[in-house]
Design brief:
Blueprint: E1 4-7, H1 8-11, E2 13-16, E3 34-36, E4 46-47, E5 54-55, H2 58-64, E6 74-77, E7 85-88, E8 96-97, E9 101-105, H3 112-120, H4 122-131, H5 142-146, E10 149-152, H6 155-195, E11 200-202, H7 203-206, E12 207-210, E13 223-230, E14 239-240, E15 245-247, H8 249-254, E16 265-268, E17 276-279, E18 283-285, E19 289-294, H9 299-313, H10 327-331, E20 334-336, H11 340-380
Helix pairs in contact: 3-4, 6-11
Length: 390
């Protein structure tokens, strides 16, 4: 596969976002002016409006109205977590863009999806790293973005590479939509049963709260084992399946932690507090999370009871250095306990749903691993797509 090298600035226009005016804060009440932040990009190919977005008010919108994106633009983070890439979806057409990101638009002679996947590839990320400057706060300047070198095959090959990779992403996105729908159905059913219950109990009467720990930094003999180990950033919704770190059994013993089985409920207790998920594989955790285990209460019920409680606790979390949820916070919480009949009825419906969710999460992990292994091989030409029929 023959390629030629071009600079990004030759095939796309790079435009910056806009900082909010001094003293102005984002609002949570939805309106027609969503504001795209760096954290909204994480892991999303097509960026669509969801409940995590915040907004600017009408007056602020007038002041920053020139700094908007159009559906189909590529958004690239340039401050903080540098190198995150997403494509703007239809629901974010004309959304505002943070100054910590740029948009790539007006593509000429390059397939947009090919450019997206190139920037995500190890080669694109290396180019991004080379252009990053700053010792105190790293930043990727627009000029350096324009100078990013891109290997460019002919348009047919670009389209084939993008089609192969996007077919995997499309399947991942379909699975995620199915999961979202199943979770919403289960949550609606649980809420309907919960709201008609009149038996109030202490949260900790039903659920045991356990902690984790981390082996000492530098104790390399404790790492690279066969036990998955995760921190708050790894907590997935609703399942956590993989972590970059693994520890040994000795490391587990050293930090006085334990291995938690599948369907253990985890809550992030420090930093970004209030993320709730379940283990999709047996895992250990660090001290910034709690593991919640039912006392003769099914783990799916633990999960939904916990969502009710954490929704209250995360708004009250406080600390001298950072926000935190403590065990005492959980001990002070009351919940409505489902009757035995309602619990059985819920689990009869929800268990198969969540088994499907877990299966889809596992498939998505396999698909994303395949995509990520193909990505550099397709971009480098190691896999020649010229003979591929699509």
């Amino acid at each position: 596969m023959e390629t030629r090298e071009v600079k990004l600035g030759e095939v796309a226009t790079v435009k910056g976002g806009k900082r909010l005016p001094k003293g102005i804060n984002l609002i949570t009440k939805p309106n027609s002016h969503p504001y795209i932040r760096v954290r909204d990009l994480n892991g999303k190919r097509i960026l669509e409006l969801d409940d995590s977005f915040e907004f600017v008010d009408d007056e602020t919108q007038k002041a920053i109205s020139r700094y908007i994106v159009t559906n189909g633009d590529i958004v690239l983070s340039i401050v903080g977590t540098i190198g995150l890439v997403s494509i703007v979806g239809d629901s974010l057409n004309e959304a505002n863009l943070t100054e910590n990101c740029v948009k790539l638009t007006s593509f000429s002679g390059i397939d947009r999806d090919y450019l997206y996947y190139y920037l995500r590839s190890s080669y694109g990320q290396q180019e991004i790293a080379r252009g990053t400057v700053g010792a105190v706060q790293a930043k990727l300047p627009i000029k350096n973005i324009q100078d990013i070198t891109i290997p460019l095959p002919d348009e047919v090959a670009q389209g084939k590479i993008a089609a192969i990779l996007s077919s995997l992403d499309t399947k991942i996105e379909i699975n995620q939509r199915i999961n979202d729908n199943l979770q919403q159905q289960a949550a609606a059913l649980f809420s309907s049963l919960y709201d008609r219950t009149n038996t109030e109990v202490r949260f900790t009467d039903l659920i045991q709260i356990l902690g984790g720990g981390t082996p000492k930094t530098g104790e390399n003999t404790y790492w690279n084992g066969n036990i998955a180990f995760f921190t708050p950033k790894d907590v997935g919704t609703p399942y956590t399946l993989i972590t970059e770190k693994t520890i040994t059994e000795e490391g587990l013993s050293h930090c006085n932690s334990r291995l938690y089985p599948v369907n253990t409920v985890f809550v992030t207790a420090r930093g970004t507090v209030g993320k709730v998920g379940m283990s999709g594989v047996p895992m250990a955790m660090n001290q910034s999370c709690y593991a919640l285990v039912g006392k003769e209460t099914h783990q799916l019920l633990v999960y939904f009871y916990t969502l009710k409680v954490v929704d209250r606790l995360k708004h009250k979390a406080s600390g001298a250095v950072f926000d935190a949820i403590t065990t005492k916070d959980f001990e002070s919480e009351q919940i409505m306990k489902l009757s035995d009949d309602d619990a059985r009825a819920f689990l009869c419906i929800a268990e198969p749903m969540f088994q499907k969710v877990l299966n889809n999460c596992i498939e998505n992990l396999r698909l994303s691993t395949l995509r990520d292994s193909l990505l550099p091989k397709l971009m480098s030409g190691e896999i020649d797509v010229s003979a591929v029929q699509l």
